[in-house]
Amino acid sequence: MCKIGIPRGMFFYDYYPFWKEFFEGLGIETVVSPKTNKEVLNAGIFSCVDEACLPVKIFHGHVEKLRDNVDYIFIPRIMSIERMEYCCPKVLGLPDMVKYSVKNVPQIIDTRINLRKSNIGYKKSVYETGKYLEKDLWEIRSSYTKAKKSYERYIYLLNKGVVPIEAIKMYNKAFKDINYSSSSHELTIMILGHPYVVYDEYLNMNLISKLMKNNVKIITPEMISKEEINKYSSKLPKRMFWTHGKRIVGSAFSLIEKRKIDGIIYLSSFGCGMDSILIDLVERKAISNGMPFTLLTLDEQTGEAGINTRIEAFIDMMKWRNKDENNISAFR
């Protein structure tokens, strides 16, 4: 059986449920690289160019792990996923970076996804991928329909408040078998950032798990509906042309104005040009609404002890604020 490798990096948590179901519907085995660890990181640092951001280096490490175990590696060239909007340039060039950086890499399926002019382009890209694998039109159409339904279930889970890390494990179960958490939480914190930073447990040092152990409810941009994101991102003076940037800003503005969260933790990869603008926009909005905000910048040298201290201090500050809100220091 033909094997296609899917690296567990970059937009993995955005589209993995769809592509897994699509390929398996065509009778092709999908192989996912292991979770990020020290070995994956080191392999990526060794093979990738120095100037790349950490998530791109980690992606190269995942490709290295798949290299000798698959016939193809699936790295779509994602140019645009919304009309009149674009993705990060590093995502656009990712197939070429891997091709010329990773030695003896298998054949790369670099499906071009460009929805800048029309959403029809996505279906066209899927069909082209199926034809590339020498499948007939009926097989492709049938597999596409099933994959689309699976992806809709995945999005449904996100909108119900399930964190993507867990939703990926649950999307193919019957809804009656899924238990949504209804337990009360002491705090509600929004974790902002690009999905390949927010959901990579090694890169962010298990931030989500640590917060949950402290009885904190987690909300991420992917859990906010597209309608809400579009509504609140439109309040910016100028239109946001980065899809993931719009998602971050729109979701944050929505929850800040509705007072649905107690604070925001922004996870940023060192050297991310997009984040240099997004962080400022969100922080200004948070400050103007009296919302606690903290930034955690991550790179190869970031130590877990320092991150833990920052998280503990941030949680303690919010608990103190909720308990003694009227007892405000005279400072400022």
TrEMBL record:
One Pfam family recorded for the sequence: HGD-D
Top-level taxon of origin: Bacteria
Domain DUF2229: 3-224
Transmembrane segments: none
PANTHER family: BIFUNCTIONAL PROTEIN [INCLUDES 2-HYDROXYACYL-COA DEHYDRATASE (N-TER) AND ITS ACTIVATOR DOMAIN (C_TERM) (PTHR32329:SF2), BIFUNCTIONAL PROTEIN [INCLUDES 2-HYDROXYACYL-COA DEHYDRATASE (N-TER) AND ITS ACTIVATOR DOMAIN (C_TERM)-RELATED (PTHR32329)
Name by which UniProt lists this protein: Acyl-CoA dehydratase activase-related protein
Organism: Anaerosalibacter massiliensis
